[in-house]
């Protein structure tokens, strides 16, 4: 296996985001590229990452599965800069990571057995609502809600998309079709702000965020670019409404 990325920035950021949810993952390498699917220990959220083959300057590999500790991988990837190239090669029971820049640096990461059943990210789920929104606008709304609560409701009403938290105090943001692309039926669902805040760290790397949800159903959060796709699934908070 030999994989080379000219710009490792997005890969590094993606690994940092996933490490907020899980400690160990299985990285799958096949003819389509590399991918990760993982569920957090609380079985509340799920994440999928895909980097297509075309994103790599070099891609030579038979199908491989690499079990890695994300905290250790993250520390190594942080040593790369925007001007570095990243070369990944499997050497028996380890992954050799070479950071190529003015000076070449080589790290060896021990591969591990990840004792988790293989999962596929569910593509069959049906949602009544789809909202494509500016990522920074969504980040700001999530941060507003964090001021007053630990959960928020995503609401579709009167063709508007509303994000609302309400306890002793409240926060509410409304988006019309002028501020977001809304294809939705009226519905309401409540989600953990702790998880949404983790997901929205990805929003800083993508101009838009796609949200899919339904009445008291999980929400799917998608970030997509030419060379990276990140998807998150989050179970609803089945509690008293905001």
Mean pLDDT over all positions: 94
Q: Could you name the ranges where pLDDT drops below 50 across 5 or more consecutive residues?
A: none
What is the number of independent domains? 2
**Derived structural class:** alpha+beta
Biggest sheet architecture: 9 strands, antiparallel
- End-to-end distance, in Å? 51 Å
Which topology of the largest domain does CATH recognise?
DNA Polymerase III, Chain A, domain 2
Description:
Strand 3 (33-39) and strand 4 (45-52) form a beta hairpin. The termini are far apart. The radius of gyration is 19 Å and the shape is elongated. The chain contains four helices and 18 strands. Helix 3 (135-146) runs antiparallel to helix 4. It folds into two domains: 2-110, DNA Polymerase III, Chain A, domain 2 (Roll); 129-234, DNA Polymerase III, subunit A, domain 2 (DNA Polymerase III, Chain A, domain 2), CATH 3.10.150.10. The protein is α+β, with helices and mostly antiparallel strands and 242 residues long.
């Amino acid at each position: 296996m030999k994989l080379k990325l000219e710009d490792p920035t997005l890969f590094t950021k993606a690994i940092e985001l996933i490490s907020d949810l899980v400690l160990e993952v299985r990285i799958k390498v096949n003819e389509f590229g590399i991918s990760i699917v993982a569920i957090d220990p609380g079985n509340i959220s799920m994440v999928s990452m895909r980097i297509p083959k075309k994103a790599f300057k070099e891609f030579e590999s038979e199908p491989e599965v690499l079990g890695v500790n994300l905290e250790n991988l993250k520390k190594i990837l942080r040593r790369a800069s925007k001007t570095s190239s990243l070369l990944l090669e499997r050497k028996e029971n380890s992954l050799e990571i070479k950071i190529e820049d003015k000076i070449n640096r080589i790290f060896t990461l021990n591969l591990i057995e990840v004792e988790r059943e293989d999962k596929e990210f569910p593509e069959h789920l049906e949602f009544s609502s789809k909202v494509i929104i500016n990522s920074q606008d969504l980040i700001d709304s999530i941060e507003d809600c964090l001021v007053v609560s630990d959960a928020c409701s995503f609401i579709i009403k009167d063709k508007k998309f509303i994000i609302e938290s309400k306890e002793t105090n409240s926060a509410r943001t409304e988006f019309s079709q002028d501020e977001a692309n809304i294809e939705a039926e009226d519905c309401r669902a409540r989600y953990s702000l702790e998880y949404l805040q983790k997901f929205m760290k990805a929003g800083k790397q993508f101009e838009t965020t796609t949200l899919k949800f339904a009445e008291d159903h999980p929400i799917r959060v998608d970030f997509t670019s030419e060379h990276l796709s990140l998807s998150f699934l989050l179970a609803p908070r089945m509690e008293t409404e905001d």
